[in-house]
Amino acid sequence: MSQDDETIRVYGREAERYAEVFTPPEDDPSLRAFLDQLPPASRLLDLGCGPGFAAAYMAKAGHTVTATDATPEMVEMAAAHQGVTAELATFDDISGTDLYDGIWANFCLLHAPRASLPNHLAALSKALKPNGVFHIGMKTGTGETRDGIGRLYTYVTEEELSGLLHDAGLAPFHTRTGADPGLDGTVAPWVTMLARANG
Length: 199
What we know:
Layout lengths: L4 H9 L1 H7 L7 H8 L6 E5 L5 H8 L3 E6 L2 H8 L4 E5 L11 E7 L10 H11 E12 L4 E3 L5 E3 L3 H10 L2 E12 L5 E11 L2
Parallel strand pairs: 1-2, 1-4, 2-3, 4-5
Antiparallel strand pairs: 5-9, 6-7, 8-9
């Protein structure tokens, strides 16, 4: 299994606090940019959905949303949102072909081991419909480590992430960078990219 058991336990223990700390603003620029690329009534996947805030926003915008997470407590919270179908699943459960118009993978794949990223991204690319839209958020840096509360992190550079997306058959077309405090209180730099599946 390429999703870290200790990380899942941390999120289960911290689920309520996470939901309180990371309630996103209604005008989240990354989510807005993602949705702006989609046709009406798209079929979407929210991978590593956490409490389901983004999934709920997508559903409210008229899309059909499947939300997955490896933490049962997060799935329970996500399922409580109207219009969201929430399922317990790990990154290894990604499968299927031409299923989704868009996939939102916002700061979830950073908990996968580096060696597993190419396979996960290839599976996600395959699950996208031709010209489907992919969003990914990762913390930037190098190496793998655990943070102060025990979560596994894989860090990537902007160039490395772009290369990984290209190798998976995804063409990046929009990038944002910034730095914010995480659940452990440490401020860390990050990058988000929008990419499009090959048509």
